[in-house]
């Protein structure tokens, strides 16, 4: 014989909603939530590498547990005629931006780096984003992805992809994405 218990809501003694851990449900390594952001707005940046760059993507998540990790993944679609592009990642939990994939030392470490020469500003490519952070908070956290250049060249994000000879009639917009996954700690 089995029993069934049906309730509309479970509350802790103080009236708050219990977490999975409060109920004895543990699942270290499990995905607790996913937040996606897709940006199609064209952006141009002349930010020099000595600055924090121009924000391309900003996505917020509120961790359900301070022991959770946040996995960042996605890509930044950029185009430039020549020079180099740097992608940096910052975290802001309400107390200001903290560089999590950009060292402040002279080594200038960045989340991603691309260098090359192109004869056309219409050439675009995606720089992948992959990073794991442990913000140690249950406050809302905003992750910002920025771009900057290492020469005087302007960097373009999310440009329209033009079929110059209109051979197949394709014109489209490139996109940049940032996905955040909270992983139970």
Summarize the structure in words.
This protein is mostly beta strands and 185 residues long. The two termini are 37 Å apart. The protein is elongated, with a radius of gyration of 21 Å. Strands 1, 2, 4, 8, 10 and 13 form a 6-stranded antiparallel beta sheet that branches. It contains no helices and 13 strands.
Largest sheet: 6 strands, antiparallel
In helices, the fraction of residues equals under 10%
Total DSSP helices? 0
Structural class: mainly beta
Uncertain runs: 103-108
In short:
The chain has 185 residues and is mainly β. 0% of the residues lie in helices and 46% in strands. It is elongated.
What are the defining features of this structure?
185 residues; mainly beta; six-stranded antiparallel sheet; five-stranded antiparallel sheet; 13 strands; 46% strand; elongated
Layout of SSEs?
Layout: E1 31-39, E2 43-45, E3 54-61, E4 69-79, E5 82-92, E6 97-99, E7 112-117, E8 125-133, E9 141-149, E10 155-157, E11 160-162, E12 171-173, E13 176-183
């Amino acid at each position: 014989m089995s029993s069934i218990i049906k309730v509309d809501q479970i509350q802790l003694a103080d009236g708050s909603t219990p977490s999975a851990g409060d109920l004895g449900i543990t699942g270290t390594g499990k995905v607790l939530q996913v937040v996606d952001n897709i940006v199609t707005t064209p952006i141009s940046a002349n930010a020099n590498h000595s600055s924090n760059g121009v924000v391309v993507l900003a996505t917020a998540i509120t961790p359900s547990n301070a022991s959770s990790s946040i996995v960042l993944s996605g890509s930044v679609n950029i185009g430039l005629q020549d020079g180099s592009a740097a992608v940096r990642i910052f975290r802001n939990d309400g107390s200001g931006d903290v560089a999590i994939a950009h060292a402040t030392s002279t080594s200038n470490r960045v989340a991603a780096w691309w260098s090359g020469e192109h004869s056309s500003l219409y050439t675009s490519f995606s720089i992948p984003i992959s990073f794991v952070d442990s913000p140690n908070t249950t406050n809302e956290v905003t992750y910002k992805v920025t771009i900057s250049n290492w020469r005087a060249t302007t960097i373009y994000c999310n440009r329209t992809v033009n079929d110059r000879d209109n051979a197949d009639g394709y014109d489209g917009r490139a996109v940049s994405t940032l996905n955040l996954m909270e992983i139970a700690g």
